[in-house]
Every structure is written in structure tokens, then in C-alpha cells.
Amino acid sequence: MALTDVKTAANRLTELLAGLDEATARGDSVLPGWSRGHVITHIANFSRAMTRQVEYALRGELVEVYDGGRPARDADIEAGAHRPAAELIADLNDAITALLAAWDRVGADDWSLPILHRNSTLAHGIDATWRELTVHTSDLSLAVTPADWPAPFCAHLLDFLRPRTPDGVHLVLHPTDGPTWENGTGEDHVLTGTLNALTAWYAGRTPDSPVDGRRPELLPWP
Predict the structure, then answer these.
(1) What angle do CA 37, 41, 43 make, to 5 degrees?
(2) Beta bridge partners of 188
(3) Domain Mycothiol-dependent maleylpyruvate isomerase metal-binding, which positions (predicted)?
(4) What gap in Å lies between CA 156 and CA 165, rounded to an integer?
(5) Rounded CA separation 157/151 (Å)
(6) Rounded Cα–Cα distance for residues 103 and 67 (Å)
(7) Helix 122-139 vs helix 36-58: angle between axes, to the nearest 10 degrees?
């Protein structure tokens, strides 16, 4: 994963939301119970949280991802989701600008520095940034869908989500436009479709084209 991929995802998101009006901001996202305002607020809050992870890591320090943990994270999303559209976008743009600037300060020898986000490293943190920006852009239910996810991103997301395959299941994905992907052991579940459709299904999103085969019940996101 390269920083250029994160910047491309960030640009796609900000361009998609340029000129957001009130009705669109209040409209439903694809995430149950969340408006687009909720998704935008979450991305902005995540961006600030990850910026802090980067800044502290570069100083040789660790800091919690969200002060107050998951309850405070969820409360902040709900509190910010209903702001005027212009305020939502200004906040998002400021947060993403700061995050990209933070990633620009990471040197070649810094990627192994630890962070508390998933108890991982800066290298994993930039992957998480790529996932958050890319997946949630399609969650806005605007012009971008999982069918627009780049093939390298689909490959990355499938591998990240391997823990979703339940015990006793040998999951085989046969993309019509890519190599076969397998995970787990046990009863065979063979699915076919485009790479993007299969990845969308595995990510818990609605595929834009058919996925054929017997689908197992997946575990939550890791």
C-alpha cells in the first residue's frame, strides 16, 4: 500500500462531497441507522484520531485512539451527524488535510513504530486509513459504489477480512476477473462473481452484480 493510494481515496471522497446540500446530508447511507451526516462525521473523527496516532508515534509515544473509548466515539458521531452540510464538509476537509499532512511526515524508517490502533504499527495504520476512506466513501450511497473499488484494494480487503470466515468453512471465491481466493478449512462454499462483487459481499456490503453460490454466515469485521 502506498500513500498515493490513500491520497487518491481522499480526493475521491472530497470531490464526491463538494457542494453537498442539506437534503443529501440528511439522506440515508447504506449503513443501518446512519445518515450521510453520520458517515461524514465518523470519517472526520477517525481522521483526527489517526492523525493523533501518527503524531504521537513519531514522538515515540502511544495514545488512545479515542478518548473515552468506543462509547465516546459513538456519542461524538451522533452529536456531530446533524450539523449543517457546510459545517460537515468543512470539518471533514480540515480533518483529512491534517491526516494527509501527518502521513507525509512519516519517514522510511518510521513505519514499524507502534500505535494503539489495533495494537499495531504505522504501516498497519495507513492500511486502516485506506480502508476507512475507501469503504465509507461507497457507504455514502452517492455516485461511488463497491464496483469502483480498485483491484489492489479488493485484494487487500479480502485478506484483512479473513477472520470473517467461520470455523468449519472452506470459502473459495472464484472471481471472473481475477485469481481464485481461498480461506478456512471444512465444508466447501464456492462463490463466483466479479472481484468487486465478491469483495463487497465479504465486506458486508451489497454487491453491484450477482454473487453465485451458497453463502456462509460470516463473522463480524475483525
Answers:
(1) 120
(2) 170
(3) 8-140
(4) 16
(5) 10
(6) 21
(7) 170
43-91: per-residue pLDDT in tens?
999 999 999 999 999 999 999 999 999 999 999 999 999 999 999 999 9
What are the residues facing 183 on neighbouring strands? 171
Sort 10 into a burial class: Cβ within 10 Å, 0-12 / 13-18 / 19+: buried
Phi-psi region of 33 (alpha: psi -120 to 50; beta: other; left: phi over 0): left
DSSP letter assigned to residue 106:
-
Strand partners, 114: 121
What pairs with residue 120 in β-bridges? 115
Q: Per-domain residue ranges for the chain?
A: 3-144, 151-202
Counting every residue written for the chain, the total comes to 222
C-alpha cell at 76: 461524538
3-144: what fold? Answer: Four Helix Bundle (Hemerythrin (Met), subunit A) (1.20.120)
For residue 156, give the DSSP letter: H
pLDDT-derived band at 2 (thresholds 50, 70, 90) equals confident
Q: Extract the runs of DSSP E, i.e. beta strands, from the chain.
A: 114-115, 120-121, 169-175, 181-183, 187-193
- The Cα 140–Cα 137 span in angstroms is 6
Q: Is the pTM of this model over 0.90?
A: yes
